[in-house]
Amino acid sequence: MTSSITFQNFMKKGNSQRSFQKRTSNFQVGVILDLKSVVGSMGLSCMSMALSDFYSIHSNYSTRLSLHVRDSQGQVIEAAAAGLDLLKNVKVDAILGPETSAQANFLMDLGDRAQVPIISFSATSPSLHTRTPYFVQATQGDDTQVGAIAAIVKAFRWSQVVIIYEDSEYGSGIVPYLSNAFQDVNAHISYRSVFPVSANDDFVLKELYKMMTLQTRVFVVHMSYTLGVRLFLKAKEIGMMEKGYAWIITSGLTDLVYLLDSDAAEAMQGVLGVKPLIPKSKQLNSFVNRLKKKSLEKSPAIGRADLSMLGLWAYDTLWALAMAAERVGLKETPKALENSSVNLNVSDLFNFKTSEVGPQLLKAMSEAKFEGLSGKFHLVDGKMESSSYQIINVVGNGQKEVGLWIPSHGIRREMNMNTTIHDTSSRENIRSIIWPGDSTVVPKGWEVPMSGKKLKIGVPVKAGFTDFVRVTRDGQANGRISGFYIDVFKSVMEALPYAVPYELVPFENPDGSSAGTYNDLIYQVFLRNYDGAIGDITITANRSKYVDFTLPFAEGGVLSIVLITYEDVNDIWAFLKPLKKELWLTSIAFFFLTGLTVWILEHRVSSAFRGPPSQHVGMIFYFPFSTLVFAHQEKILNNLARLFVVVWMFVILILSSTYTASLSSRLTVQRIQPSITDVNELIKNRDFVGCQEGSFIVDFLKKQGFEGSRIRTFTSPDDCDEALSKGSKNGGISAFYDVIPYSKLFLSKHCDKYMTVGPTHRTDGFAFAFRKGSPLVADVSRAVIELTENGKILEMEQNWLRNEPTCAGPEDSMNSITISLQSFKGLFAITGGVTAVCLLIFIGSYLYKYREFHRRISNSRITIWSKVVAICRHFDQRSLSFREPQDKLPEAGIMQNSSSENSVQPTDFPRNHSNSGEIVSSAPEEVRDASATIHCLNLEDISAAQHSGVIHPSA
Q1: Percent of the chain, pLDDT > 70?
Q2: pLDDT tens-place string over residues 296-318
Q3: Less crowded by CB within 10 Å, the N or C end of the chain?
């Protein structure tokens, strides 16, 4: 066979380390199996054939395996006794078996103590191989198949599963791995059913009936063959193998499906299973034919063992052990066995020597790699390397392959890795399946528990606000339930891919009154008195602790509705309202700044900006205000002043136009405004506010800061209308809070009286509520999305609300608009910038032109105040570098030299100032400046000025 070629390479190292000898060495190997079980008898037959095949091919090997078979009789104690006998009396080098995980769990400790490998081809519990290095799990552990099972659940979009397993080392070992695998595919384990290994029929029926009451219809079964068959026979008996159910069995049951009799096969019709993939080969076909020929007469079941992995693993395990023995080589011949009988001395029961060959044999076996009948044999950390899995469907008297699960590629129809598949978890990658009840329809994984029972859906009952949900009495037991949101729910349930029977039940008392608030209704769903609740139910954080909500089908948010008030156009201060307070103050400040800037720029050059101090102040305030109506007549001579005035005139044009338009609109059209502009005023003033009775808004308002005694609830829109009209001071309310759908409907009927104010407080909208963990939530949410996208919900809304009365209230354009400073920040920034630039240029030019004068003033010994006064009086003098056209020079105290402009006599300077404060002379400016300086200093400072050199002593 193919493995012999691989074996030659495997043995090169061992052969090179020893010389060939003619003598042979026997390795004592114990075999512990339940010889009356299918697995035990099959395993022993396959090992016997493997031993014969191996040494017929490798007749020249110097080692031989001697098998010592012990019958465990299916009991842990018997297996332990057999192990002690083999270790103490036979002194075996290795033990093949035990058959079950419970037996292996005990024997591995003995092997660890004796340093003898315990090799099992049928104990699959994932927790075994980590206990001791001397336990070899020459089989696929149960944890390697959970990925395949989870992939099936994901492919069919099942959101909930029930795990059924036996209470044993074998049964419970897989549960943690299944839990993690289902969590990875967003599947919830709704129930775990544990069966004792010795469970009787009454217990099986009782547990199955309990599972029938669950909503979940997907069951994963992990049991031994005998108990698993009994489970399915009883499930068939009570109707749990009908249409709508889905059953998945693990590899332990799947591998033995070929053993089913006609009754068991009929009971398991439609079951899905997974088992390791067996690669086809010529050696496998030859082995199956020889096994059938040898064992058909002895055991028909063994004759059909071509589909069983256990026999193939037993065959390959013995080959691997024989290879390892040959690699270890010859060993010392043991002395004659002493104490051939079992020592019954309890104190000496576990007293046996450690094996010298065991560690070498364990190491050699862990390095073995070859292609066996079951596929590639390779141990990783004492455990068989994981492989792909087949997905089979129990149909008729056999099984058919419907897909493959490859760890790195997911579910595929075939092993061809080049096949392009868009989604490896899609059900399209699985061939057609016959489900329980001979159905070809994929089970949805969830159904209403118990046949004929309907979902009980609670509907809120209230006296008013019945535009969207309405319960009326017309002789029916539960009344007539209607409304926009009821129609939405019915449409959503019709859009589901499966039928869900339900009944709408009003949440009311025997007298027809409401049985409580919306929170009370949600809590009844939590208590399982209802399966769900529908209507105008808002999603809140507190409610989501008790139920699961679908996606919202109506927008969320809370609005504040207040009374509309109208502006009084006869108010004596109406002319101030077009502009806000900050804009008025900013405008006045810029008016003053404009007048001051123009005076500074024009004072030394224009006679219009000269005169006594009172005239200066008047001009500063007069000029900018005269520009409002373009009534200024003063000539602007300075170019910087001209630039500044042009910019200011632009600002004035826009500001006055805006003010005029706003004022005329206010005086000609009646404006509306809310009675409350700031919602925080309601809290501060302790005003009364209102909301619907039983609504979550009561708690919402308390969180906003309102006192509970200041919150009033109403049962109808008419009561709200009356309370809002009265106002808080007259026994009513100042504001009414409600969710957006009801607020819009209320305003559509009373838009001439009320309006919204303040921000919209965000909520998650209206949704349907179901019990925690209900599979309906996901499907209903998808249906809501579908109906929203195709416009069906919007169409229903228009049909329901088209007969509502339209409001003939105030026009939309009648809202009051007061212009704020924000609208003019740009303009004020421009004019402010131009003002600053013009002033800086002017001041810089003035200081540079008269730098000599300012230097002498700063160096003088006069007081600081005298220096400031001198500079101010110097600035106050008129500059003759600018000449106004057609202006006559003043005659008082002015003397000009007709012969020369530059000849100046001392008598040319006046002794006193004129009333106008002007000094005009044809002398140079430096001389005139000195004269002005002399004049500006008072008599008390003359001596100091003379002493400092500013004024000549002769002056």
Answers
A1: 75
A2: 555 554 445 445 888 999 999 99
A3: C
